[in-house]
Specification:
It is a single chain. The strands form 3 sheets. Strands 6-4-1-10-11-12-13-14-15 form a 9-stranded mixed β-sheet, sandwiched between helices. A 4-stranded mixed β-sheet has the order 3-2-8-9. The chain has a domain at about 10-15 and about 40-65 and about 115-275: Ribokinase (UDP-N-acetylmuramoyl-L-alanine:D-glutamate ligase, 3-Layer(aba) Sandwich). The protein has helices spanning about 45-55, 70-80, 145-160, 170-180, 180-190, 200-205, 250-255, 260-275, and strands at about 10, 15-25, 35-40, 60, 65, 85, 90, 95-100, 105-115, 135-140, 165-170, 195-200, 215, 225, 230-235. It is an alpha/beta fold and about 280 residues long.
Length: about 280
């Protein structure tokens, strides 16, 4: 399952600062608890881009970026991993995500997107998608305007250049909170070739995501894939010792972004996810 030579993965979404908090045990209400903390670059689109580079591809992140301390730290971390960041800079607060990791490796995300969600269609430069073979759009971009319109515009430009377009649904809770019908309409405007989802996210749409092809991430149970042409398959998860599940889905998405058949995408994604969960944090 070699990476297709020359693949440039473009991602559209958030560039944030990740704070991973590994808990030693349950949180005592109103009291103190010991933990282990890690600071890193994050944001779903940034994570996918970094993993694409780690897997042997090239990557470019399209994002609205803050120039405060958090924003600069996040961008420096991304550059150090070989990802090109493009997009407008803005006055305001850089986004921060706090990931609370339980002793069993499961995590709960607390997200403050800062200026990232303000990306507009008018901000986009078509040159940012030059050479793009795969555009990955974070589902968080579809949760609100003006970013949803920016995502649709980027998808149109990428497709004109022959790129595949994928969307990761990102969060079942937020889809329900913002409205399933509205999210579905925004997803339809993008018309992705591939949708990535967890079982819960796919369940919001009745079990199979609304797209020509899909990969449903099932954690320790691996992945199931399908397409409207009748393709159906299941693959087991790659063996791994779970340290921190943060970013596993993003690593999987990066593997899927690097070309090949749907089966190839799934297998490469499972390998990347196994590498991710064996360490702390979402970045490679």
């Amino acid at each position: 399952m070699a990476v297709v030579v020359g693949e440039l993965v473009c991602t559209l979404g958030d560039l944030l600062l990740d704070v991973v908090v590994r808990l030693e045990g349950p949180l005592p209400e109103g009291d103190d608890a010991h933990c282990e903390t890690h600071l890193s670059t994050g944001g779903q689109a940034a994570n996918v881009a970094a993993w694409a580079v780690a897997l042997g591809g090239r990557a470019r992140l399209i994002a609205r970026r803050a120039q405060d301390g958090a924003g600069r730290l996040a961008e420096e971390g991304l550059a150090a991993r070989g990802v090109e960041a493009v997009g407008p800079t803005a006055e305001g607060r850089g986004g921060v995500v706090v990931s609370l990791v339980a002793p069993d490796g499961e995590r709960t995300m607390l997200s403050d997107r800062g200026v990232a969600a303000g990306l507009r269609a008018a901000d986009l430069d078509p040159a940012w998608l030059d050479g793009c073979s795969h555009l990955h759009i974070s589902g968080y971009a579809l949760m609100r305007e003006p970013m949803a319109s920016a995502a649709a515009a980027a998808a149109t430009t990428a497709r004109r250049q022959g790129a595949r377009v994928a969307v990761d649904l990102a969060s079942a809770h937020l889809i329900r909170q913002h409205g399933v019908e509205e999210f579905a309409a925004r997803l339809a405007a993008i018309a992705p070739d591939l949708v990535l989802a967890t079982e819960e996210e796919a369940g919001v749409f009745g079990g199979d995501p609304p797209a020509p092809a899909w990969l449903v991430k099932r954690g320790a149970r691996g992945v199931r894939g399908g397409a409207r042409d009748g393709t159906r398959f299941e693959l087991p998860a790659a063996p791994a010792q779970v340290v921190d599940a943060t970013g596993a889905g993003d690593a999987f998405a990066a593997g899927a972004a690097l070309g090949g058949s749907l089966d190839d995408m799934a297998r490469r994604g499972l390998g990347a996810a196994a590498c991710c969960i064996a360490r702390v944090g979402a970045m490679p």
